[in-house]
Design a protein that fits this description.
Blueprint (H helix, E strand, L loop, with lengths): L13 E6 L10 H5 L3 E6 L5 H8 L4 H5 L7 E6 L3 E5 L2 E6 L2 H10 L1 E3 L2 E4 L8 E6 L1 H15 L9 H23 L6 E6 L1 E5 L18 E5 L16 E8 L6 E5 L3 E3 L2 E3 L12 E3 H13 L8
Helix pairs in contact: 4-5, 5-6
Length: 301
């Protein structure tokens, strides 16, 4: 390995974007499209409609900045598993989302559009997975389908093995995305799961409502064992947080740890001297990419 001053600083950003539902995580992607990045999105949360509103409405600041920004959202693959209800119970009829997601990473096709293997994408492209929470559920259903167990009642021991298997699928996915063979930028969107200091489900005081022990917020996957280890697969973990309410409500992106709903959510950045401590939501991701990379794609405004 050459000395540090001979190394070329990587311009690829692999980022975990974490926050509660409704904080604006998916909408924050609009600033990247407006800045000229090509977005290809695996949408398992079915929440990308906001991007159409933000990027095509003439009243939007993004449209005013770059009227062609919507074209930079090159592909959105909406993936879900078919569910049905029988006697009050909801269960998957078949598992397709996990296989479709992993197939897309090997050869991304969207109608007549073909973008090839993710390892061939360049540094002006952003792979978005929205969200880790839902793709983890898809991995769980996929494992059940392999066992012929979709819609069946599992014993406690079977359930634990099923969760462990799904976590192995997710871990393998994270390892692949972390690998240097992936040259494009990666944004993994995730909700927050609360884990107490003993690794279990947090308990609140029945009288005060306060947490009975120290609680940390981690990326929500499946089960709790994997969540504390997920950030190690990303050099950057940013938090989207809502502050205030009503007319004074603000949404911001943080690069340093914050308290959310009584729990600590740790953040990190590989570039603490280049990045700010926080950014406004509407321009935050583009601002952060600019601070790290030094410039936006030539297709930007």
């Amino acid at each position: 390995m050459p000395p540090l001053n001979k190394l070329i600083t990587a311009k690829t950003i692999k980022l975990l974007l974490i926050g509660n539902s409704g904080t604006g995580k998916t909408g924050a992607l609009a600033s990247l499209a407006a800045a000229g990045y090509k977005l290809r999105i695996l949408d398992l949360d079915k929440g990308t409609d906001i991007l159409g509103e933000l990027l095509t409405n003439p009243a939007s600041s993004y449209f005013k900045t770059n009227p062609n920004a919507a074209a930079n959202v090159e592909s959105i693959l909406r993936l879900s598993d078919t569910m049905k209800t029988v006697k009050g119970q909801v269960y998957p009829v078949r598992s397709t989302a996990w296989a479709a997601a992993t197939d897309a990473l090997e050869n991304w096709k969207d109608g007549e559009l073909t973008f090839g293997k993710v390892t061939t994408w360049d540094q002006d492209t952003v792979l978005v997975i929205d969200s880790l929470t839902m793709i983890s559920q898809a991995a769980y259903f996929y494992h059940l389908s392999l066992q012929g167990a979709l819609g069946t009642t599992r014993t406690q021991n079977e359930w634990r093995r099923d969760i462990g298997a799904a976590q192995s699928y997710i871990k393998a996915l994270l390892q692949m995305l972390y690998d240097d063979a992936i040259k494009c930028n990666v944004i993994m969107i995730s909700h927050i799961t609360s884990i107490s200091e003993d690794g279990g489900i947090p308990v609140r005081d029945p009288i005060t409502g306060a947490m009975a022990s120290s609680v940390t917020g981690f990326p929500a996957s499946i089960g709790r064992a994997l969540s504390p280890f997920i950030p190690r697969y990303f050099n950057d973990m940013l938090l989207v947080k809502t502050i205030g309410s009503g007319p004074g409500l603000q949404r911001r992106i943080y690069t340093i740890g914050q308290t959310v709903d009584g729990q600590v959510v740790n953040c990190k950045t590989a570039h603490p001297l280049s990045a700010k401590k926080d950014y406004p939501l509407d321009t935050g991701l583009a601002d952060y990419f600019l601070a790290i990379r030094g410039s936006h794609p030539t297709s930007g405004a």
